[in-house]
Specification:
It is a single chain. Helices cover 36% and strands 19% of the residues. The protein is built from nine helices and nine strands. Helix 3 packs across helix 4 (61-72). 42% of the residues are buried. The chain is globular, with a radius of gyration of 17 Å. With 233 residues, it is α+β, with helices and mostly antiparallel strands.
Length: 233
């Protein structure tokens, strides 16, 4: 596909009928704030917001998401020596010797991380991580699994999805999922590309569609990563 056609399709998406595009609601809007206020427990969401990273490179959505969720769970190692005696996991410091064997820093700069690579990074940093590809998900089951994870203070959720079905600029992306609003059946995504998009609510069904899109590097659909801190820590 030539560059001229790609630009035409990108512009076309912007002018699709509203019913075709995902209903995106910014957290800072009146409706977005109302959805947040309906949450019965905001502790995990607020912790994620407090630790939300901005990706340091355009391809670092995976490392930024992982640093965000681990810091919010209290997993602060390995911390850079420059921060001593304070502890905080950073996008750079998560590239341990084990993780560099999975994918080098330069390779992640070039092509980012797949869902499975991100899961392997997380496990090497001492947490439990279960990845589920969208090809194995259906809406009702995913909703139930998601609610259980969001209610557990020791768990966090990271989603790998395509921006295209949401009418956003770009394609594959990774960010933490912070909350679910039952009244609108929508989820709160804390976009780590903070220079481009704010935290947003999107319909859960649209997220599933976005996760079903092919990750060309992985050769399969995108999906969700459930991360859990071990209770012994």
């Amino acid at each position: 596909m030539n560059s001229l056609l790609c630009r035409f399709l990108a512009v076309l998406v912007l002018f699709l009928p509203l019913g075709v595009r995902s209903e995106i609601i910014a957290l800072e809007s009146t409706e977005g704030a109302a959805r947040f206020q309906r949450l019965t427990d905001t502790r995990s969401a607020l912790s994620l917001l407090s630790h939300l990273e901005t990706e340091i490179y355009l391809t670092f959505c995976g490392p930024a998401s992982l640093a965000t969720v681990l810091n919010s769970l209290g997993v602060r190692e390995p911390s850079p020596a420059a921060f001593f005696p304070y502890r905080r996991l950073t996008q750079d410091s998560l590239f341990t010797e084990q993780n560099l064997r999975i994918k080098t820093f330069a390779a992640v700069q070039s092509t980012g991380l797949t869902l499975e690579q991100l899961a392997a990074f997380a496990r090497n940093l001492g947490v439990e991580a279960q990845s589920l590809h969208a090809e194995h998900l259906e809406l009702v089951g995913f909703r139930e699994r998601l609610l259980l994870a969001l209610r557990d203070p020791h768990m966090r959720v990271v989603v790998n999805y395509s921006r295209i079905p949401l009418g956003q600029e770009g394609d594959g992306h990774i960010s933490p999922l912070a909350a679910y609003d039952e009244a609108s059946d929508s989820v709160l995504i804390l976009d780590v590309a903070r220079y481009k998009y704010p935290p947003i609510w999107i319909p859960l069904r649209d997220l599933v569609i976005a996760m079903e899109k092919l990750d060309t590097e992985a050769g399969r659909s995108r999906g969700v990563l459930f991360i859990k801190r071990r209770r012994s820590e």
